[in-house]
Design goal:
About 45% of the residues lie in helices and about 15% in strands. It is an alpha/beta fold.
Length: about 300
């Protein structure tokens, strides 16, 4: 039997934005890779593939073209790497909560009879347990960052216009439910398909939001509004439509929570456009990581000890 190996690049090896851009490309191949017996991980901060060495040899240059990558070899080393990722120990935001769910969702594409499926599933459980035991939990909070930006932009007690949230996926819905729009006269969810979204929001009997298409935004101009971009599902056509809408609207600030900024800076002219790579975000990340970094050795030791008793 061919030995299990893992090949990877992440934000610790190269700048986060190029990794995120490359990950978006490889993500399109995820289903085909899984059908070939490969476990692919394509998140905003990493591109990683795991499986039998003989299988991965066929994809090596295709997946990591132009990037220098690292390798782990052997079932135990693979399990340890995956468990550490699941714990949040290798995330750009240490202790973040999304990564283990992303791994669990990614492994669903893989044949459950393959060794990599069994090991990855065990590793995810071990990583989650270590995170919980050591309270390796990020204080970094998108809701709080958006609140702080709103507070910073509106210091004089103005009566605010509307809060626009572009996208109603997990992140967008979480922001709405957190109440970040409470200072605004209303919250608007920007969507290309209001009919479908209205069905999904039917269960929200306690929250009132308006739905608008991008082409409807900006009539009239709202300089006391804030726009939060909480989606990565943006093709060229949608980007152009969104850009025109924001230039019409002239909001006080646009906060882009995407790992790959949706709009090029030159496209938004003189509008205040804040991305995950700007100082306001980086300060939050640095604070969170400085608080959790002392726990890293404990998490790593916990995972290693658990794997020793797991008899992989």
């Amino acid at each position: 039997m061919s030995e299990l190996v893992g090949l990877y690049i992440d934000h610790q090896m190269t700048a986060p934005l190029p990794v995120a851009q490359h990950s978006a490309k490889i993500k399109l191949l995820a289903t085909d890779l899984a059908r070939s017996g490969v476990f692919p991980i394509t998140t905003c901060a990493r591109v990683e593939v795991y499986g039998a060495e003989s299988t991965l040899d066929n994809f090596d240059s295709r997946i990591f073209s132009g990037f220098s990558h690292e390798r782990v070899k052997g079932a135990t080393a693979v399990a340890q790497r995956l468990a550490e990722i699941a714990s949040g120990a290798h995330s750009q935001i240490l202790g973040e909560s999304y990564i283990s769910d992303q791994l669990a969702k990614a492994i669903e594409l893989v044949n459950p009879n393959l060794p990599i499926f069994q090991i990855a599933r065990l590793a995810i459980e071990i990583g989650r347990a270590a995170r919980k035991r050591h309270r390796f939990i990020a204080s970094f909070n998108y809701d709080q960052i958006v609140r702080d930006i709103i507070t910073d932009r509106f210091l004089n007690g103005e009566r605010l216009d509307r809060l626009y949230i572009v996208g109603a996926g997990m992140l967008g819905r979480g922001l709405i439910r957190s109440g970040v729009g409470e200072r605004f006269r209303s919250t608007v969810v920007v969507t290309r398909n209001p009919k479908n979204l209205r069905k999904r929001l039917r269960a929200w009997t306690d929250i009132e939001v308006a739905l608008m298409r991008p082409a409807e935004i900006g009539y009239p101009r709202e300089p006391l509004s804030i726009v939060v971009i909480a989606t990565t599902d943006v093709n060229d056509e949608y980007e152009a439509t969104l850009q025109k809408a924001l230039l019409r609207l002239q909001p006080r600030t646009i906060v882009d929570l995407s790992s790959i900024p949706v709009l090029p800076e030159e496209a938004v002219g003189k509008l205040n456009y804040v991305t995950m790579y700007d100082d306001e975000f980086l300060r939050f990340i640095e604070l969170n990581n400085s608080q959790l970094a002392p726990k890293l050795p404990l998490v790593f030791s916990d995972i290693e000890a658990t794997l020793r008793t797991a008899q992989i």
